[in-house]
């Protein structure tokens, strides 16, 4: 690599000058917010005899980073509430984001941002949630794959603004 070639984050290939960009480019991904609480510690660890019941909520948000531009931040918001014997075992909240450049027709922007972008972010968010729950002293929360098409369609069907519940883990 020459001294004149700028480094590219996350090992991504740099677009070559004069070449058209693809319809979707993931520029950067990052953990925007991560919270893990064990409100009943240390007692919960002495009374916990079975895997806690986990309720999951998932939401996807997208916002333009510049007016009229084609660069967007997509946020994958995940909350896991674990209950055991009527008390809270843990609460985990994760906001995992990506900065995407979108080069598609205007009618394709919404499905690309709310279906394809979270689909790319999901494996990384899944690993972070599994690691933080395991490191917190509990069995890792392993999320099953999410049908982002169904999530997007349910939002369009009148459930705007509400976090979509996900089946128990």
UniProtKB/TrEMBL annotation:
Describe its function.
Answer: One of the proteins required for the normal export of preproteins out of the cell cytoplasm. It is a molecular chaperone that binds to a subset of precursor proteins, maintaining them in a translocation-competent state. It also specifically binds to its receptor SecA.
Please state which protein family the record places this protein in.
Belongs to the SecB family.
Q: One Pfam family from the UniProt entry?
A: SecB
Can the keyword Transport be found in this entry's annotation?
Answer: yes
Annotated region (Disordered) at: 1-21
Q: Which UniProt keywords apply?
A: Chaperone, Cytoplasm, Protein transport, Translocation, Transport
Q: What is this protein called?
A: Protein-export protein SecB
């Amino acid at each position: 690599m020459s001294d004149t070639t700028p480094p590219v984050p996350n090992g991504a290939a740099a677009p070559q000058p004069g070449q058209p960009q693809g319809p979707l480019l993931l520029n950067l991904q990052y953990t925007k917010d991560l919270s893990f609480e064990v409100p009943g510690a240390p007692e919960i660890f002495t009374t916990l005899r079975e895997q806690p019941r986990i309720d999951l909520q998932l939401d996807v948000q997208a916002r333009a980073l510049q007016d009229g531009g084609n660069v967007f931040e997509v946020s994958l918001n995940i909350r896991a509430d674990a209950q055991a014997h009527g008390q809270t075992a843990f609460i985990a909240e994760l906001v995992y984001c990506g900065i995407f450049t979108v080069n598609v027709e205007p009618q394709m922007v919404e499905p690309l941002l709310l279906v394809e972008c979270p689909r790319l972010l999901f494996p990384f968010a899944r690993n972070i949630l599994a690691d933080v729950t395991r490191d917190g002293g509990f069995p890792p929360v392993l999320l099953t794959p999410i049908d982002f098409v169904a999530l997007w369609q349910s939002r369009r069907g009148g459930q705007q603004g509400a976090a979509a519940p996900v089946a128990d883990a």
